[in-house]
Design goal:
heterodimer, A: alpha/beta, six-stranded mixed sheet, four-stranded antiparallel sheet, 7 helices, B: alpha+beta, ten-stranded mixed sheet, globular
Chain lengths: 242, 784
């Protein structure tokens, strides 16, 4: 029987912080396996370590121990430069606070990953068109982030995460700063783009109604990661038909 | 890296993913990609810089200054060879002089110069002077030669082919001499110019890289969040470095031509008084561009390398929390204690890393300014330092230098001083030393304690870093130019009187007074052998312990305070000199100094007169060092003026750093001030924070500026007085002083920058705050 190549595989990831004289274990031996195309949600209370775990999975933070593999590539063994390039080509990241660069227009923010990965002009144009249409940003492309609403800013952040057509997208509470209507809208768009592009999605959220759309839900509690629900074996709820 | 770091596509294309422009052939494909990369990078950088011009003003100024001070050196370098050439061409029409030839030798050389085959003629005879040798009563000839073609090659051919012949034609007891002129050594001057150019370039390169790295580090700290986002989406070191590099590259392209023009104008006006045609070489632009490229590459490399190894999240979460600025939470706790005075003092401590970095980097340029001026003065002192125009060797005659000779030489017009050069003996060469009382040694001077079982003396210090010099009465005039306490003539009143210097390696070490006594050791035997590998103090200690000495007491009759000397000089009468060295004083080598205002023709006439004088005494060897000519060349290169110009330009870097850094620093703290105001702090409190911060920085600047300037200048003084003579055996004395006008300029600038770089951001902060609050109504609640 051939071995399954997981899109994301972590093994006993540990991350500790030192605060004054106390050592805080933010992530404690967290292990997870995510298959290609899967949507995994990680829930947990504030300070439970879920965002830290997500940042480690995306290579934005270094783990103190353990391994993180993306499609079999151990990113914990990569140098900063190798990791940077790998991240740009294979991963997308959506921050809770969108983290758009304020001096850049929406279009410029969306195109940052193409510039960082030296994509030829023509290679991303089709994808950009699709994203802009799907995320309904056509009229807002030349606006600065400060001229956009919270929902629009987050849509720009989603487009930025997807412009290079990454294999896996990490989303850190992408709807955390939005009201319910906007949150539903963003989630709908995210799931739509995921469906169209077929990416793997790993999302951190504390909103169970959003997590319910995932194939599997993991729970982070005091740095420990456990499987909470597995919808692949049951029925999934849908938002607006998705 | 900022606003226009990405290029917006003009249209949405339907070309499929992976589509590529069609270029024929792999090579052209590569060139195409390179061209696309260059144009794209430059275009992005251009937009980024000019859409955020205010953020880059500091870099425009810094790069302009860097390019200008290097431009000064590059443009002047192109003229230096011209200066050399003009000078030597003006003064010399021959490469070599052969002196004291006999007629056979002259005929031989004349015959060779008229060879049938042109290729064999390697020199041309410019002229032949004849004179009578009084000792042999025969005619002698001086022959002036100019080499044809490649003069270096032909000089060598001449030495190999003709010198053996000339020697063979010499009679017994006859000898001839060869001297080469600066015209022959012109290439050496060019080489020396190149070496000077390279050394100065290296120093300026280090200063420039330091400056730009500091500025870029400050900027990079301001944009951590942006870099964090870039790295999240795939940026590696290459990408970060490339973007940063192209931005500075674009700025430097803009400033390059104005900087070169400015430096060319300055060089032109500096050279103009010399009357030598000004020459501009387009290579200068190339040099400045290359220098600039290296500076930009090196300056961006380190900050970007450091940035690239950081974890993206750690950069993103420091959005409002740069390296320098920490959370105000702890400060807010102080609010009820003593606000804002104590609060701001505490802030100074919180931001100590920032303050230290600012003070040291900004003020180091003030110190460099003072060091630059001091170095220019050192260069000038070195240039004006009297060096002999002629050296005379009487050792092959039967006549040592005496009073009669002295009168004859001083009678020649243009001679200012005739000094003996073989009347010195280093104490270390005689295994001798000098003992003096502890009280005669200045505090903190490193002079060894004297300890001897065979000759116990209390509270004594000993050194063998002493040179014994024998002085005759007619030579006393050579000491009169130095600052002196006591009577120089007392040296000849009693044989146990000495005249003494007070410095070792040109650094004042002793405080002798007239009437003090010293003891000079004369080795008379050996108790046991000493280790031959010993040196320095260990050797001296071993000598004291293992050798047997006779100690002679001498009384100080006069103290000389500014004699240039490596070892400390002690001047003895001929009798005293013989006592300590066991050799009678016999002067056979002379240095002849001439009036600095003599023209080349007058020097030529004097040259002939001295040689004629020497022939009276027989086989006297006279060497013309061409010193006036060399001094004139050095002077017309105007290096000291350029050092002053560079020093002034460096001074302007200091305010750049002050205002750029402080503006960013206070901009970062604006959120903190907003919180403080939200908690009840009044506008006057905020103003006090700014003013107090400015005053404290001004006060610290005052101290650091003086301290760094003093240390920097003393370092130069030490290098040129102590370290350099060790390698070059130069005997120039440089005084240590702090140029008060430069210190005042530096301190005023530092203090002014320290204060105003805090006060101006305050005005900007209050203005923007009230504009926002009152819709432009102005500072309505000031002092409420």
């Amino acid at each position: 029987m051939p071995e399954v190549e997981y899109m994301l595989q972590t093994e006993s990831v540990i991350k500790q912080y030192k605060q004054y004289d106390t050592v805080v274990t933010a992530v404690n031996r967290a292990s997870i396996r995510v298959e290609p195309g899967e949507f995994v949600a990680i829930i947990g209370t504030s300070g439970s370590g879920k965002s830290t775990f997500l940042h480690i999975c995306a290579g934005l933070l270094r783990a103190d121990a353990g391994h993180v593999k993306i499609r079999g590539n151990d990113i914990t063994k990569m140098s900063s430069d190798e990791l940077g390039r790998f991240r740009g080509e294979n991963m997308g990241f959506i921050f809770q606070r969108h983290n758009l660069i304020p001096q850049f227009t929406a279009l410029e923010n969306i195109l940052i990953p193409t510039v960082m990965c030296n994509k030829p002009d023509m290679s991303y144009q089709e994808n950009l068109r699709k994203l802009v249409e799907t995320l309904q940003l056509t009229e807002r492309l030349h606006h600065l982030p400060s001229e956009l609403s919270g929902g629009q800013q987050q849509r720009v952040a989603i487009a930025r995460a997807l412009i290079n057509m990454p294999d896996i997208v990490f989303a850190d509470e992408p709807t955390g700063n939005l009201d319910r209507a906007n949150a539903d809208e963003v989630l709908k768009l995210l799931l739509e783009t995921k469906r169209v592009m077929g990416q793997t999605l790993v999302m951190v959220t504390h909103d169970l109604s959003i997590a319910d759309h995932a194939d599997r839900i993991f729970k982070m509690d005091n740095g420990e990661l456990t499987l909470h629900r597995d919808y692949q074996r049951g029925t999934k709820r849908t938002v607006n038909g998705y | 890296m900022c606003l226009y770091a990405v290029r917006a596509p003009r249209r949405y294309s339907t070309v499929s993913k992976g589509g590529r422009r069609s270029l024929i052939g792999g090579g052209r494909d590569d060139l195409g990609r390179l061209w696309e990369y260059l144009t794209r990078s430059l275009s992005i950088a251009w937009k980024s810089v000019f859409f955020n011009f205010r953020q880059y003003v500091c870099f425009f100024a810094a790069l302009f200054i860097i390019q200008m001070f290097y431009g000064l050196i590059a443009v002047s370098n192109a003229n230096n060879n011209q200066v050399d050439y003009e000078h030597v061409m003006e003064e010399y029409d021959y490469h070599m002089v052969l002196r004291e030839l006999n007629l056979d030798q002259v005929n031989s050389l004349v015959a060779e110069s008229e060879a049938v085959f042109k290729n064999d003629v390697i020199y041309k005879i410019i002229r032949v002077d004849e004179h009578l040798n009084y000792m042999t009563n025969r005619m002698r000839y001086d022959m002036y030669l100019l080499f044809n073609g490649d003069k270096k090659v032909n000089e060598k051919r001449f030495e190999e082919k003709f010198l053996p012949t000339l020697k063979a034609l010499g009679r017994e007891g006859e000898s001839f001499s060869i001297s080469r002129t600066p015209l022959l050594r012109f290439e050496d001057n060019e080489r020396a110019n190149r070496v000077t150019f390279i050394v100065i370039s290296a120093v300026l390169l280090a200063v420039s890289i330091f400056l730009l790295t500091m500025l870029y580090k400050i900027r990079v700290n301001q944009y951590k969040f942006t870099y964090g986002v870039y790295m999240t989406f795939g940026a590696d070191f290459k990408k970060l470095f490339g973007t940063a590099f192209w931005e500075l590259f674009v700025i430097s392209i803009v400033t390059l031509i104005p900087a070169v023009i400015a430096s060319t104008v300055v060089v032109y006006f500096v050279y103009r008084p010399s009357g030598i045609p000004f020459r501009f070489s387009f290579l200068s632009i190339l040099f400045v561009a290359l220098f600039n490229l290296i500076v930009v590459l090196a300056s961006v490399w380190m900050p970007m390398r450091i940035m690239s190894i950081r974890q993206p999240m750690s950069l993103i979460i420091t959005e409002d929390n740069s390296n320098y600025v920490t959370s105000p939470i702890r400060s807010i706790n102080l609010l009820n204690k003593s606000f804002p005075t104590q609060y701001e003092f505490y802030s100074l401590w919180r931001f100590r890393k920032y303050s230290v970095q600012l003070l040291t980097t900004a003020i180091v340029f003030c110190a460099l300014f003072i060091m630059g001026l001091y170095y220019a003065d050192i260069y000038k002192t070195n240039l004006e330092y009297p060096r002999p125009q002629f050296t005379v060797d009487l050792s092959r005659t039967d006549y040592p230098y005496d009073e009669e000779m002295s009168e004859e030489l001083y009678a020649l017009s243009g001679i200012t001083e005739v000094a003996a050069s073989d009347n010195k003996t280093e104490a270390i060469d005689l295994a001798s030393h000098m003992i003096t009382d502890r009280d005669n040694v200045l505090p903190l001077r490193n002079v060894m304690v004297f300890q001897s079982e065979t000759y116990p003396v209390e509270n004594a210090r000993v050194t063998n870093d002493v040179v014994y010099t024998g002085i005759t009465e007619e030579q006393l005039v050579t000491l009169e130019k130095y600052e002196c306490t006591g009577d120089l003539r007392s040296l000849f009143a009693q044989s146990d009187t000495v005249v003494i210097g007070d410095a070792i390696s040109n650094i004042s070490t002793f405080r002798f007074e007239v009437g003090d006594t010293i003891e000079v050791a004369v080795r008379v035997g050996q108790i046991r052998a000493i280790d031959g590998n010993l040196s320095g103090r260990n050797l001296l200690a071993a000598q004291i312990e293992c050798f047997r000495f006779e100690y002679h007491t001498f009384t100080v009759g006069a103290v000389l305070h500014n004699v240039p000397s490596g070892s400390m000089p002690i001047y003895f009468s001929p009798e005293g000199y013989e006592t300590v060295t066991k050799d009678p004083l016999e002067i056979t080598a002379l240095n002849i100094y001439v009036d600095q205002e003599l023209t080349p023709e007058e020097v030529g006439t004097l040259d002939g007169q001295i040689r004629n004088w020497g022939r009276i005494y027989g086989d006297t060897y006279v060497l013309n060092t061409h010193q006036l000519s060399l001094d004139s060349i050095s002077s017309d290169k105007h290096y000291n003026e350029f050092y002053v110009c560079i020093a002034i330009l460096i001074l302007f870097i200091s305010p750049l750093i002050w205002f750029f850094t402080q503006t960013l620093y206070y901009f970062k703290r604006e959120r903190e001030f907003n919180i403080l105001q939200a908690m009840g702090a009044q506008a006057k409190d905020i103003r006090r924070i700014y003013v107090q911060g400015g005053l404290v920085m001004a006060f610290l600047s005052l101290i650091v500026a003086i301290l760094l300037s003093y240390l920097g200048s003393y370092l130069l003084f030490y290098v040129f007085n102590v370290v350099e003579p060790y390698f070059t055996h130069a005997n120039v004395r440089y005084d240590f002083y702090m140029p008060w006008y430069a210190i005042v300029t530096s301190v005023v600038m530092s203090v002014g920058c320290g204060f105003f770089s805090a006060y101006l951001p305050f005005r900007s902060y209050m203005k923007s705050r009230f504009t926002l609050e009152n819709g432009g109504a102005g500072e309505g609640d000031e002092g409420h």
